[in-house]
Specification:
The protein is an alpha+beta fold and 849 residues long. Helices cover 22% and strands 32% of the residues. The structure holds beta-D-glucopyranose.
Length: 849
Amino acid sequence: MLEIRHFTVENLPDGCVTDAEQPRFAWALESDGQDVSMEQATLKVNGWSTTTKEQVAVPYKGKRLQPFTCYSTRLTVTDNRGQQANAEAAFETGRMDTPWDADWITDGSYKFTEKKVSPRPMTFRKCIALEKKVAKARIYATAMGIYELTLNGEKVGADYFAPGFTSYKTHLQYQTYDVTDKLQSSNELLAEVAGGWAVGSFVFTRQNRVTADRQALLLELRVWYEDGTSQVFGTDESWQVAMDGPVQMADFYDGETYDATVKPEQMNWHNAARENLRCHPRIRAAYGAMVTAHEYMEPVSCTKLADGTLVYDFGQNFAGVIDLHIQGKKGQTITVRHAEILNPDGTLNTAFLRTAKATATYICTEGDQYYSPRFTYMGFRYAAITGAEESEIRVGAWALYSELEQTGSFACSNGMLNRLQQNIVWSAKSNLMDIPTDCPQRDERMGWTGDIAVFAPTACYNFDMSRFLEKWLEDVKAEQLPTGGIPNTVPVQGYGFPATMPVMAIDFWGDACVLVPWAEYQARGDVEILRKMYPAMKKYVNACRFWAGFGFGKNRYIWHTPATLHFGDWVAPDVPKMQQWQARSKWTATASLKNTSGLLARIARILGENGDAEHYQVLSDKVADAYVSVFTDGNGKMKEEFQTAYVLPLYFGMFPEKVRRQAADNLARLVEAGDWCIGTGFPGTPYILFALADNGHLEEAYRMLLNIKCPSWLYEVRMGATTIWERWDGLDENGVCPIGDDGTDLMISYNHYASGAVGAFFYQRILGLEPEQPGYKTFRLCPKPGGGLTWAKGSLRTPYGVIHTQWAIRNGEFALEVQVPVGTRCTLTLPDGSTRTCDSGQYAYSCKI
Ligand code: BGC
């Protein structure tokens, strides 16, 4: 039987509210038959109908959609056997640029002048009486700052940190909340607005007021009555505001202070004032992936220290907020501090949080009560609580991250690798916090471009990243400098150091504008992401080419602007100092230019820009040739040897064929001399195993992957890591951080996904699963067993359906099973080299090994 699965509108399976003029539809199919494919599909919506053979990103092309309207889309699919399936998906349009029947409001008496902290949270209030029967009601809301709404005492929606983090000067999201069933004849609507990213202190220099001088709120309650009339209640000067609500302090880095003794009737309410904003972004229905609460975390132990502090261990490092049930006394103050690791004496090690206080303080009222922060989050595994006895509190926590569907899974016969896969997923969860961040704990949590540039392929295996990345990439485009450089963090939000870097374009970090859309395109197959980003990519690669273009002869293609203007082989563990990582920028930057220009050539070809395709291909080839000519002896040996110097040209295909194998042998020799330990920084880490495995050194790749000596992936696992560390040597064998003054100002995080980029190797080589056509319309399955693994299995929800695959080795035989989704084709290559193609269905094959 044919069945439609995962019928989405704008990549959301349900609840889509959109301002898109041409929302995109997509669906996957499932069938119990073999060789089933979609013959055609008919979509009907709003009097428009189309028949198509596509099933990814099919755009609506009917008459203009109206704002504030619910639409239902009917889909009928016929397969090649004549079977039919039907499904329906509802979506709703948002405001679609309808002018707001509301004003931006603020507390006009509040002058926020302090530096390096966040403003006092503001609370707005409005009582709304309704006389008629409500048919439908929606709240449309946004803020400068981050807001949460309460209607008649109940939280509205499940979002944290609304309206989300965007390049506020250009884009601002609004949220839509269905409150039809929540309204009564008399209603009290509260909006608490904290500083968040727009007004609060952010980036490690603790800039504040970057977007606005103080918080502001813009909101409409739209009510449609049963009698056909409607009414809008918008923010205006009749709303009340107070600055002395229970949330007294809220800051992403420092935490939250909540005084439960504060009662609304005691607050100093006064009329709100209209606010003139400094910037005028386009305000659009939320189009990213909002942060919500996911796993409920329970502590695995509680230790009472000599001074009475209770230290709770959640057994897992993560990003989120504590969840406390308290039996309290009025005025009792409970303090919760957070950290990723402990000191040897069992106290929290907060040294690496730098200026972030990461503290939640709660002042109790009398009796049973509940507290969980709503305007901050922390990255932690341990929570230290003072001010309460163990018997007075029940402690849990919520993992917070963007609403992302987990699409991939991987497991194998090596338990440590399985833990590494879990660590990769947990570091992703912890850092996919509305934007892709570097870390969730210290005073950064910024949209570092280099981190997602290298991690995107792995992220796109494990999660459906479509909405999340599309949103962030709009900001990458918006924040690109006129010179073509991409800021190191997006949104920039106050970060501008050193000023020259993004102006001049910077390798690997700026490459995010090419690498991230490319990874997303491979995973989802929606060409629009390339089309949208193409002008930005071109401008960026042109800038790189410009800055690399100084010198004579082949040196005109070696990018050697001063190393201090690059990050180079960032956090490479084989050299201890930051300056030494940066000193490798000649190699990393030149290889990056070869890669981005080569990818741009491919993208240009896909978009039909053939002139560009040729131009960038020539550039890419010249850069490759220059790298090999200038940096090697011509026979595959680097004049200056380090792992990344080999890895990049091997993975990017820069060596002439006749010396490629020799170069790989040299890399393998270097790796062996280093005892199979990792020596790469951000740029080399995602690719080193591929550079080995794909060039005749599969066993060496496995040996490196399975190494448990420091520095290596599994060393971290051996040391009890539950997330990916920023620094390979984050803890020594005694569990103490050995890193001293290396020029990075204690840049030591235990939750940084960048080197988790190895996850792509699990899918692409251990399982052997790679798209041939983007979105897995056709895909390769070519497992490369090794390292003594006896089995591996995984699944991937592609846009067409779920691929399941598993292999096992028993008595010299390699047995593989695969499920190929409807409408896709798999080219399968077994370890003995035999190849076959399979259309949809279940298959089992085996060969001698
Ligand atoms: C961040 C990184 C980032 C790097 C760039 C760090 O402070 O945490 O992950 O990419 O700076 O230098």
